[in-house]
Amino acid sequence: MESITVVQALSALAQVSRLQIFRVLVQAGPEGLTPGGLSDHVDVATNTLSFHLKELLRADLVSQERMGRNLIYRAQFDRMNAVLSYLTDNCCQGQACEVKNDSSFKTY
Fold first, then answer.
1. I need a labelling partner for 25 at 20 to 30 A (CA). Which of 57, 67, 73, 86 fits?
2. Widest CA span of the chain, in angstroms?
3. Domain boundaries in the chain?
């Protein structure tokens, strides 16, 4: 995954409503949700919801499928996992990351 792709994904999620929408779609799983179903879970106006979904689509974090008269939105789990992998690829030189409690740390 290229850095620019990760930046686009993180940029799309760097907004409270879009992050909330994405989290709801992740929780919905592979079945996804219609915009009406999404609006039951998020406090976003319908026209604003459409704008945010468009931004998540542009970042390839969600997919859209037409089923009859409905649009179904789904989280792109493979893309989400690729972004997470990119962020943690070089974490702690390949070892499990552990935060140690350092009592010598001083706050000023």
1. 86
2. 62
3. 3-88
Q: What is the fold of 3-88?
A: Arc Repressor Mutant, subunit A (1.10.10)
Torsion sign (Cα): 92, 98, 100, 106: positive
Which amino acid type is present at position 29? G
CA distances from 96 to 2, 25, 50, 99 (A): 24, 29, 40, 10
Token match 């409270």: residue? 16
* Global pTM value: 0.82
Note down pLDDT in tens along the chain; length 108 residues. Answer: 888 999 999 999 999 999 999 999 999 999 999 999 999 999 998 889 999 999 999 999 999 999 999 999 999 999 999 999 888 887 766 666 666 665 554 554
